[in-house]
Amino acid sequence: MIQVENLVFQYPGNDEPTLKGLDFSIAKGDIFGFLGPSGAGKSTAQKVLYKILEGYKGQVNIDGKNLSEWNNSYFERIGVGFELPNHYLKLTGKENLELFAAFYPSGEKQNNAQLFEMVDLQDAMDKPVETYSKGMKMRLNFIRAIQHDPDILFFDEPTTGLDPVNARKIKQHILDLKNRGKTIFVTTHSMETADGICDRVSFIVDGKLVLTDTPRNLKSIYGKEAVTVELKNGQSEEFPLKDLGVNPKFLDFIKQDEVKRIHTLEATLEEVFIRVTGKSLGDE
Amino acid sequence: MKKLLKLAFTDFKLIFRDPSLRSFLVLPVILFVLIIWGVPPLIEKYDFLFPYLSLFLVVGVIENTQMFCFINTMVLIDEKESDVAKVYGVVPLSKMEYVFSRFLLPYLFTVVLNLILLFVQTICDISTASALLISFLAALVVPVYALAINSLVQNRMQGMVYVKAFNMLVLIPLAAFFVPEKFVHWFGVFPTHWVFQAIDRATQNLSIGVFAAIGFVFFLALLWLVSRIFVRKHFV
């Protein structure tokens, strides 16, 4: 669906490129994530793909067709969820949605009331957006991006500004979109979001892709296939996962006292990121 | 066409819901009152003003354009500042369609306001053809002004500074009425000079064709240029 080869982009006035030769591809129906600290080039890469930034070098193909050859019909096929809320504050949520819906062919649009209900904004749809909280505005961002039922979706930090409950709901909606065959490109610095929804992730640091794989593989490769067992008496020991159920040392150990907790030693995505890149996701 | 009108009417919704912009809508009313009921008694009382009759009309026409110059400038700056402009960058609407739809109604409204002003004023006699040409020409100040400022500024504060500067730029060619004849067209580097001169000639029942033609070419070239710069910067 999306193929990117040697993508280089430099902002006018900058000394060096923000994107330094990115290569990646996203298959139809996949959720692909860019994971990296602020300023790594995540949003810039997305902006090139949704044609806001021109003057890039390299090859970008969407559905086998060069990005530069796509005309305005490209925008009917994509939906963009921006990182920050961007709405007309004096208009109501419904008016905002209707305004941008007017630019798309009528057959493809989803029902407004259902969209507002989907993100629990049904009671606020007729209120001016200036009365919305940041989380509400972000949810409005989300439904504006999907209202015309696009094939390809770009979400830039989709859970930023959301409380844990709404963040979980938005992640579930993104998974539902994937199940409907949508191709989704997410950028995030939230390990939890990437881990929870992405089929594959790429670590991006200083405009370069350091590693691409599935979250499961990354956690498994960079983690340890073992568990630590902690007893109530304070003793703690590590055992390999392999043949754990018939491991006599393990069985003897857990008979010594009541088990307080058992941890797997699988790495978190954030730990993998730090080990691979030497940087933390919070780094600027 | 439906989407263009939707966008154009949304602008009016935004204007009416913003008290700081809404108040500017009374500007033409004040201007009409001054031109219709203020200027004639003034001229009657002070004879020395008589040679400057056309100047009253020049100021009236150009100030008529200032309402939408300011309103449209501020609507676009707000859009940039609130990042709504970015959304227009990813919808199936060409950038030129966007520019066209944002200025179609303000332009036509300004044309109508100028036509009304030129028809109801009693200061000078102006032919219908001249009034039409002047109205269509002068209203081109609106898109050029708003697009030029929006190509330069990032926020409302900067916008206010540039609005002040542009208000002066628009009025500078008034000085041409106070310099020796041979220096008059030195002010031709300012596009509004050709509007002012056309109005002056119209008040003397002289042909304004050449001046209007230069004005149209000048304004349309500027409009093309600032639109390109605006489109490059507004949606990023």
TrEMBL record, chain A:
Signal peptide bounds: none
Pfam families: ABC_tran
GO MF: ATP binding; ATP hydrolysis activity
SMART domains (alphabetical): AAA (SM00382)
Domain ABC transporter positions: 2-231
Keyword vocabulary terms for this entry: ATP-binding, Nucleotide-binding, Transport
Recorded superkingdom: Bacteria
PROSITE patterns: ABC_TRANSPORTER_1, ABC_TRANSPORTER_2
InterPro entries, per the entry: AAA+_ATPase, ABC_transporter-like_ATP-bd, ABC_transporter-like_CS, ABC_transporter_ATP-binding, P-loop_NTPase
Xref: PANTHER family: ABC TRANSPORTER ATP-BINDING PROTEIN, ABC TRANSPORTER, ATP-BINDING PROTEIN
Protein name: ATP-binding protein
TrEMBL record, chain B:
Protein's membrane topology: Multi-pass membrane protein
Keywords attached to this entry: Membrane, Transmembrane, Transmembrane helix
Location of the protein in the cell: Membrane
Transmembrane region(s): 21-43, 49-71, 103-123, 129-149, 161-179, 206-226
Entries under InterPro entries matching the protein: ABC2_TM
Keyword Transmembrane helix: yes
A Pfam family per the record: ABC2_membrane_3
UniProt KW Secreted keyword: no
Superkingdom per UniProt: Bacteria
Domain ABC-2 type transporter transmembrane stretches: 61-224
Name of the protein described by the UniProt record: Fluoroquinolone transport system permease protein
Organism: Draconibacterium orientale
